[in-house]
Amino acid sequence: MATSALDPFSRLPTELVIAVFAHHAADEPLGPLTTRSVCRRWLHITDSTPVLWRRIVLDNTALKLPSLHHQALLYLQRSEPFLLDVEVRTHDPDRVLPILSPLLPAVSRWRTFSTAGFRNEHIQMTDLPLSSRAPDPLPLDRLVLTLYEFDFDELDDEPDTETGSAGKTRFPTFTEDGQMHLRTSALPSFLELAPLHFTHLTISEGILEATHTNAASILDLLLATPALRVLVFEGWQHDDEPLAYATPLPLVALPYLEVLHIRTTCITRRLLSRLDTPRLHTLVLAYLNVDFRVRSAEYTGEDGDSDDEAHDFSQSPWSDHATGMGLRSLIARSRPPLKVLEMDYSDMRTKDFQWVFDRLPELEEFRIVASDMSNRVIGLLRPTYNLDDGSVHLRVPRLRKLCLDHCQRLSGDAVVAALVTRARFTDSASDTHLYSKLADVLVSACEQVDGRHEAMLTRALGRRFRC
């Protein structure tokens, strides 16, 4: 008997076979993988029919992560040029980013996105600016990771207090301003991720309950994000692992990073000491001061780890030490062209300020709030003259903007002596390519700066001075 008589399906026209396969793929997410494995003809038909591959169901309850990555890449390639319906099935919210990572570079092709398991979510991706069909498409370049130690997904199904609508997802994975926002209990390792192409990354420890993210996990994630231009970490003031048991820290190269913002944490030194950021131009350190001993200040043997010879007053000696040593390490390794340094409720020891000022020739703006910095520190901004050869040394020679806010240890006389002397020198300097004139000086809420000092600063700086 002929083979065709035994196998009526083989006599069907290709168009009908495709229709059958499409119906099968609609009911069975892995249907294309099944049909392509039957025979050579079915393999050819399946692989050459993109419509069969447009629904990508990544089921972490059935397959492990490497298999899901292989499946995602295969579907992504075979479905070209169709839009994709992407679904993630998992009971673990920490797996969402690793599962999706191979597909994120093609997010502009997504038609819908949905999740099942730990939460139920459905997003019409073509309504977002990330879609290629949007009037002004945006790249998916911003990732926000919010860390929680427990789950708030039951809130997703409650009525929205602002709109009154029921069943609306309050914390969508993809937002209307073009961000990807995930809530997780732990950061993924770079070993679990396809390379991420985000240029902006925010990691935030949830405000409802303190989490304990260590420096090792942050640095490990950063190994998967080499394209970053902006990095923000907002934490809690909890200590890191004991040094005797601390996870070894990788050295992370972020060759394009331009802005680094670290806020409210005790792991500043461990983070800064393991970053290589040769293009960093803006560094913001906020709410790092603590009055308790932090383990990251217990390093020994590095240049500068000795006690501060100035013995200046400090309400936060341990965090001052850690912040200063972390900044020393970052600058020594990367030699960044830092132009903006902001320190808000963040301090260093006097000798760290001197070390840093001596190595920031491009710094244009320095802003410090609620600091215990002493008169010795503000005095570092004065020009110093070498009587032997008449040469002049001026730290941070390109400084144009200076803000001193709530610096209660500074005397008015020290502020006037430093800034008036500096202004006279830079205003009269002929080497304008070496020295910048002070263009904007703000002194705010410094108790020891009174009306007399304000008058002297106004005479020297004119409209460039604000109080």
Automatic annotation (TrEMBL):
Q: Where are the transmembrane segments?
A: none
Could you tell me where the Acidic residues compositional bias lies? Answer: 300-310
**Residue ranges constituting the F-box domain according to the UniProt record:** 6-56
**Sequence segments annotated as region (Disordered):** 299-320
Return the Gene3D superfamilies for the record: 1.20.1280.50, Ribonuclease Inhibitor
- What protein does this entry describe? F-box domain-containing protein
Higher taxonomy: Eukaryota, Fungi, Dikarya, Basidiomycota, Agaricomycotina
